Amino acid sequence: MRENVGLFTAIDNNPRNGEVSWEEYHAYFLRSHGFSESYINSHDKKHSEMSRSLKESIMRDRARWAEAARNDPEKLTLDEFLAFTHPESSHRALLQMVEDLFEKFDRDGDEQLTEDEFSDLPSDGVGLDLREDRQQSIGGSEDRRKEFRHLIDKNKNGKADRTELLMYIDPRNPRHAIQEAQHLITLSDTNLDGKLDLPEILSKMDLFLGSKMVDTERSFHDEFR
């Protein structure tokens, strides 16, 4: 997050006024993809000669920009810019994910998830991808039920309300790091002693380098895409 504050300051330069305009960001985008200053200053607005993949990236950025801009559609404040660069951490995005959970899994419509309802969530986790084609129910799994009892149902009333679910899916919740560590140990602990030694880690180097614990920014964007 600190890096994005620095990025905001670096982009906010024409003029430096505490806001980043779409033109300033677009110039930064083009510059970061190797386009010359002459192209940036006088390019075809439709980018006729640009590759399709870069055009699609610009369109996605523009859509996320529109979502983050609450006051001026052409400018972002620092808070809005942080929501733009890390939509998975924005409060509004998390609230929408909670609403999606209720819509899909709150069978009795009481706006609370019971342990039974929670145990029917997709096997790839809460808040990661709620599209219909990704749902693979692990209904009634004991692991999911333990997760509900110990990590979600803070007031121990047998139900999860919006506040409890919001805390649970927040990327800053320590449970994400705990689950990833358990996952790495399960896949790498070849002698089954519950610990990892250096040879075990080195034998799974690609696994660790691609881990959420190493590349957290990429993993958050992948999970909440």
TrEMBL record:
Superkingdom: Eukaryota
Alphabetical UniProt keywords: Metal-binding, Repeat
Q: Please tell me whether the keyword Repeat is annotated for this protein.
A: yes
Return the GO cellular component terms, semicolon-separated: endoplasmic reticulum
A biological process (GO) of this protein is: calcium-ion regulated exocytosis
Q: Where is the EF-hand domain?
A: 93-128
GO molecular-function term, one example from the UniProt record: calcium ion binding
Q: Mind telling me which InterPro entries this protein's record contains?
A: EF-hand-dom_pair, EF_hand_dom
Q: Which Pfam families match?
A: EF-hand_5
Q: What is this protein called?
A: 45 kDa calcium-binding protein
